[in-house]
Amino acid sequence: MHAGLHALSRLAALLVLAGFVVSGCGDGAPERRPAATPTAADSAATPSATRPAGGGTAWPHERVLRRIAGRRIRVEGRSVRIDPATVTCGGLGTPAGVVGGKDAWTRFRCVQPTFPAGAVAGPDAIFFVEPRGPRRFEVAESHFTRY
């Protein structure tokens, strides 16, 4: 009798857990997440998502990745190679326009993991890419993260 009650309680717990999982799944429609609200400390350390005054060239995400792939950038006095297999970039703010049918931005925040010799992983290089023309870009505000 005791084993039957234990099995029933386990079954009830699994059903409750399954209910949470199913209720967390939507109907497949994309859900807009609210924008993050930085704390005062975060906003002081995070550069502005907007481009400095003076206009600018807007690039789609794919162009940024193509242009920086294989390049070397200076981060805190060290040379870091941009690996197209591990670098990640995202446009900052709302798109500045559309290029080739794709959203385009004037400023991108990028993360390049580092893998120093003798270590599993090193600090991530964080930097900003600012398009300056159809083929030119500038890397700004590069630094290493500390987790």
Task: Offer a quick outline of the entry.
With 147 residues, this protein is α+β, with helices and mostly antiparallel strands.
Which helices and strands occur, and which strands form pairs?
Blueprint: H1 2-24, H2 40-45, E1 59-60, H3 61-68, E2 72-75, E3 78-81, E4 88-91, E5 97-99, E6 102-105, E7 108-112, E8 125-131, E9 137-144
Antiparallel strand pairs: 1-6, 2-3, 4-7, 5-6, 7-8, 8-9
What does this structure look like?
The protein is of the alpha+beta class and 147 residues long. Helix content is 25%, strand content 28%. It has three helices and nine strands; from the N terminus they run ααβαββββββββ. It has helices at 2-24, 40-45, 61-68; strands spanning 59-60, 72-75, 78-81, 88-91, 97-99, 102-105, 108-112, 125-131, 137-144. The protein has a four-stranded antiparallel beta sheet with strand order 4-7-8-9, with helices on one face. The protein has a three-stranded antiparallel beta sheet with strand order 1-6-5. The chain is elongated. The model is unreliable at 13-30 and 32-54 (pLDDT under 50).
The main sheet comes to: 4 strands, antiparallel
What is the share of helical residues? 25-40%
- H and E order: HHEHEEEEEEEE
Span between termini: 52 Å
The stretches of 5 or more residues where confidence is low (pLDDT under 50) are 13-30, 32-54
E-strand count = 9
Structural class: alpha+beta
Shape: elongated
| Total count of helical runs of at least 4 residues | 3
Strand content: 25-35%
What is the arithmetic mean of pLDDT?
76
Kindly report the spatial arrangement of strands forming the biggest sheet.
4-7-8-9
CA radius of gyration is: 23 Å
